[in-house]
Amino acid sequence: MNKNIRLFVALLCIFGLSSTANAQKEKTSQDSIKVFYDKIFKSLEVAYLHRKDYDWKKLKVETFQNLNKAKDFKSSLQEIKGLLEKINADHSSVTYQGKTYGPVVNISKEMFSEEWQKKFAAKPGFEVKVLDGKFGYILMPHLSFDDFSAANVHKIAQPLYDQIAETKTKNKLEGWILDLRFNTGGNAAPMILALYDLLGDNIVWGVLDEDKKLKSSVKLNKGVYNEGYKNPAYINPNGELADTSKVAVITGVLTASAGEITALAFKGRSNTLFIGENTNGKTTSNMVVELPFNARMPLSLGYDCDRNGNYYKQITPDVLISKQDNFNDLLQDKNIQEAIKFFQKTT
């Protein structure tokens, strides 16, 4: 409800016309609900990855029957969770006024070690360090932001890339560890750009259509993240590539969405080993739909794939290790110990 309508309703109440005001408020709320959900259904029917699997007319009737019981627009948003669950849209949600409505990921605390829980609670950020004087370590967390412009992606990615490039230049490393255990998603572009030196000039991932046929590919080329846009995001590279270096990618059960895309970028890369746990399974590509009243909805349009066009519901590590984390002493972390074995193994 906009400010003028709210003011009008308030004035009517002041003058004792409360019954008229309530009728006006109810009408306005239902109008808002209709406009909002009409846009949601239109987006789903036109663009949702699994749009052909559902009877949208029937779903719309059922949904609006439920919405007739809503007291106001805000309470109507509780219907979103049920709708998205009915269509198995587990990678979608609606964000309105800072709150998210949609399917909830329920993962028991028992799935995580105490070490992991402590680190996660501390909200870990991006880290680059050298372990034992010879192993590069990169912790890549989730990176979420609203400004998807090339300039903003560059602004975020460049300092991350610079830290990795500086570590590469100043040290003679036997291998790199990419830790994605806390990467719950966000935007993959700055993550992959930051890792440019390890990936090199290659196709790094792509999108498949509903029939799992290749729709598009994303390529790195001289620091440019080329996904087909006129003004692509980029970083300014520095020094030689490390794209033939050994890389160990560590994943966990909360590695999801853009975190999984970042892992996928290393699938098909030579000298690469995946260690840890199966990823979360949010391997669909989303676009952000702008909804009425400044709300937003990520909507799945295709399947994520690796550089060779392979789709994975979850990314399964080559070496499975669970709940043997140690973030106070990384050299005692079983995942990292396995990575070091890989680096030191002669082929």
UniProtKB/TrEMBL annotation:
Pfam families: Peptidase_S41 (PF03572). InterPro entries: ClpP/crotonase-like_dom_sf, Tail-specific_protease. Keywords: Signal. The keyword Signal applies. Residues 108-322 form the Tail specific protease domain. Residues 1-23 form the signal peptide. This is S41 family peptidase.
